[in-house]
């Protein structure tokens, strides 16, 4: 199945290739420099994923897969949420976003700070020629650590400790993360739908 992933994030594109495997011929927007991603103006991950996939799939007979994903921290009322990629401002680096998150955790009250529960959430939208074929989601629960640990992965991985593990996503090898991550769980739901022949 040929699939165009609506991202220019090389880390994310590589992760999708690893998760989807040989059953999918995955391309990303690096091969379509003329395509402009729409602004993420939705109020939910699902709205953003759907709007990106629909915009890119117009007038194309390709299967387009778009995701919106992010980190929700309970002590921060669910922030950074849909603003995860730009938490520290437009064009912010992963390091800047992490630093702002850790500062925000220090500013909350002691009671809230002790409640470090958080989750990564991913929503995928599969679209062809402007028609939404399916929306798939995945969540992984965990907590925020005090200090960034590890250099693997990307985004907030170094400060996210998944439940049941003693290493952050930034410390875990890719093959472990790709079994338990929010994106892995959303892709699993997508693969199940494809296996049922839903999109033939």
Structure report:
The protein is globular. The chain has one domain (2-195): Maf protein (Alpha-Beta Complex), CATH 3.90.950.10. Strand 1, helix 1 and strand 2 form a beta-alpha-beta unit. With 200 residues, it is an alpha/beta fold. The chain is built from six helices and six strands.
| Number of DSSP-assigned strands | 6
**Termini separation (Å)?**
10 Å
In terms of structural class, how would the helical and strand content be classed?
alpha/beta
Number of helices: 6
Q: What is the total domain count?
A: 1
Protein traits:
6 helices; globular; single chain; 200 residues; 6 strands; six-stranded mixed beta sheet; Maf protein; alpha/beta
Please give the structural blueprint.
Elements lengths: L1 E4 L4 H11 L4 E4 L16 H13 L5 E11 L20 H14 L2 H5 L2 E12 L2 E14 L15 E3 L11 H7 L1 H14 L5
Parallel strand pairs: 1-2, 1-3
Antiparallel strand pairs: 3-4, 4-5, 5-6
